[in-house]
Amino acid sequence: MTDDLLDRATRAFKNETAPDDDGADAVLARLDRTRRPVSRSMRRVTRVAAFTLAAALVGAAAAASVSERVRRLIVDDAGLTTRGAPTTAPVAPSVMETPPVEAPAPTAAPPVVETPGAVTAIPSRPTDAGVRRVQRPVESHASAPTAVPADVPPPQTTDAVADEDALYRAAHDAHFRRRDYAAAVVGWDRYLAVAGPGSRMLIEARYNRGIALARLGRTDDAIRALEPFASGDYGQYRRQDAERIIEALRRH
Amino acid sequence: MTGYALPGVTTIRYPLDGESAAEDLAARIVAGDRDAFVAVYGAHFAEVKAFAARVLGSREAAEDVVHDVFLALPKALRSFRGESSLRTYLLSMAVRSARTRYRAALRRRKHEARAADTYFARTAGRPDKDAEQHELARLLSVALDALPVDQRVAFVLCEIEERTSAEVAKILDENPSTIRARVFHARKKLRERLSALADPNGRDGKGERS
Predict the structure, then answer these.
(1) Which CATH class is domain B12-117?
(2) A108, CA 20 to 30 Å: which among A9, A179, B57, B64?
(3) Could you tell me which residues come within 8 angstroms of residue A190 by beta carbon, excluding any fewer than 6 positions away?
(4) Given an 8 Å threshold on Cβ–Cβ distance, is B41 in contact with A15?
């Protein structure tokens, strides 16, 4: 009976969603607009605008960093922090310490650059420090949620769950301070579930989730999470890192 | 083959010339040949869009996937060596794009009370649609939303689009046995979900949530 229902529903679904060419012209026009070559002068203007924007971002991020430090000082002085009170029990040491990837050759091993700030590497990474990627620009280091110091506690109340920044901080804390990657994956998932498309940290959270999955040894899930970065869905952001990590995970 | 007219393209008969032409076309697309690009676009637009719509449950999101795929195509084809058909290659790209958009598409539909974006809401008023077929398709669409994306992709490719597990394995770069397992689990979940949806007062009493 249910098999029959499923088969009938499958047939109906197939018929109702049969391929058609609706929208073909519109998408092609959109593609043409997107792919239209940019003139040289336009390129120059874009470069200048990008430079100006980058300078503004650096300034804003530096200001945010300073105000964050001041806030921390005030909060610490007032004795409002609850240091060293992780809410999640750490996972077994074997899980925490097992590297997701054993790179076969030191020169080929991919560095795992985790966003933000905390640059770690898969064991037996290259000895050549030049291979390691330099920390990302100030936006990932100093902007509010990423630059949260390690001693900021995870959210304490259920109300905070709705708060994107609090969720980001909790995931960040689990990932970079406690190195509890199981909790980190849960944290990143919770953040991603509420983060809107315009959220500042959305892409970084996706990348970090992939790294946490790799740390847990969930190779397939990690590859799936990092593939969009490797295939350039986010431009050059973490592209090479993701490519190397995926390659190493596949070899493993 | 679909009937999409290829504006200004008369010399290229792809895929009528067979997949042997695919590598040449790929090289031409990489070199920036618009006619070649439009030929491939015209030949595969409907298929890629239908797949994406079946996975994402939304026409707009499906068109975004088509846009992603064909925007990235010239660059992606630099590594195309003809080991698989261009069709398989395009569907692999569509799977990747659909996966990245899946959660957002589900979330968006959940929050859109009117669900004005679904196939089924759009076709609901059409007099030529058989009401029962429409309802069955709608129920399956709701049931599909409960599947993990991998199972949904495998179900769509194998059961809706009737591809072999070997072909799907090639598209997804997985083992055929993995694909069969995913379809098996998808069917099991869909059976349960469908019977609950079809009989909201049944044993679990869950009914339809959307």
Answers:
(1) mainly alpha
(2) A179
(3) A161, A167, A170, A171
(4) no
